[in-house]
Amino acid sequence: VNTILLQPTSTKVNRILKHGKQLLLGTTHGLISYSLKDSSEQLITPNINVQTLYTDRTHIWLGTLQHGVLQSDTTGKILAHLNTTDGLQVNHVVGISSYQNTLYILTKRGL
């Protein structure tokens, strides 16, 4: 059993998602990638409270507490940012899923 030591120790893990040979941890301090191959950790998106995670074949979608939805590639490069300006009711995202090529975003105020 491997143990992941998160810094700072006040970090809370909100979601865990397996993506290829890595675990993605959505935490109160950002998105952490943990390699299942060599047990290395990398903080991909610092200072963003990640509430939920969703992945398709090439992208990772991060639902955040205050920043809406971020779309990134597997290296952590942010490709898109969706928030209230783009039509979300609020920026507190609690769920992300897709069905038939449509992305569904659940916020504190609904779908």
* H-E string: EEEEEEEEEE
Give average pLDDT, whole number: 89
Question: Got a strand count?
Answer: 10
Query: Shape, please?
Result: globular
The strand line-up of the biggest sheet is: 1-2-3-4
Oligomeric description of these chains: single chain
Structural class: mainly beta
| Range of helix content | under 10%
Rounded to an integer in angstroms, the radius of gyration calculated over CA atoms is 14 Å
Termini separation (Å)?
A: 38 Å
Walk me through what this model shows.
The chain is mostly beta strands and 111 residues long. Helix content is 0%, strand content 52%. It is built from no helices and ten strands. A four-stranded antiparallel beta sheet has the order 1-2-3-4, with no helix packed on it. A four-stranded antiparallel beta sheet has the order 5-6-7-8, with no helix packed on it. The protein is globular. The model has no long low-confidence stretch (mean pLDDT 89).
Short description:
This protein is 0% helix and 52% strand. With 111 residues, the chain is an all-beta fold. β3 and β4 form a beta hairpin.
Topology:
Layout: E1 13-19, E2 22-27, E3 30-35, E4 41-46, E5 50-55, E6 60-64, E7 69-72, E8 78-82, E9 93-99, E10 102-107
Antiparallel strand pairs: 1-2, 2-3, 3-4, 5-6, 6-7, 7-8, 9-10
Q: How would you describe this structure in keywords?
A:
111 residues; mainly beta; four-stranded antiparallel β-sheet; globular
